[in-house]
Amino acid sequence: MEHNAQGGPNVMVWGGIGLNQSLGPVFFNNLGPGRGNGITAQRYIDQILQPHVVPFFQARRNCVLQQDNARPHTARVTQAFLQHNNIDIMAWPALSPDLNPIEHFWDKLQRKVNQLRPGPRTAAELRQALINAWCNIPRDAINRLIHSMRRRCQAVINVHGGHTPY
């Protein structure tokens, strides 16, 4: 079992949020000993995009995928896969995590899990705690995060790309 720096369990998780909808949490499958735990573009396609994102987007119209600029997201193979599956991608500036609503969602999720006493001691317990916390973040809280994006973008513009209170 992997442990984080604080000695607790560690899992790799992906998720997406949208107005009145969410996708996740999705846990990455462990590749096994000696295979490494880095997320490659192909692993991202095989474990996230193909089984989860493509069906989600096929069932909805007028959706745009917002990702950060992590290497698996920007890799040519990933971009080609998304284009082939008719998934529109929002252009996203580098080094702007304070603008992305999901970053605030991850923070809420982490705070809920960190409040658990006793905390999760195994990866399975952590996965279950994340699922429970995910399901208990109110939909209106997610919608408020998304609706605040214009205000957060304006705050960055107002400080010429500097730090904001978000």
Automatic annotation (TrEMBL):
Residues 34-117 form the Tc1-like transposase DDE domain. GO terms for molecular function: nucleic acid binding. Transmembrane segments: none annotated. Signal peptide: none annotated. This is Tc1-like transposase DDE domain-containing protein. It comes from Littorina saxatilis.
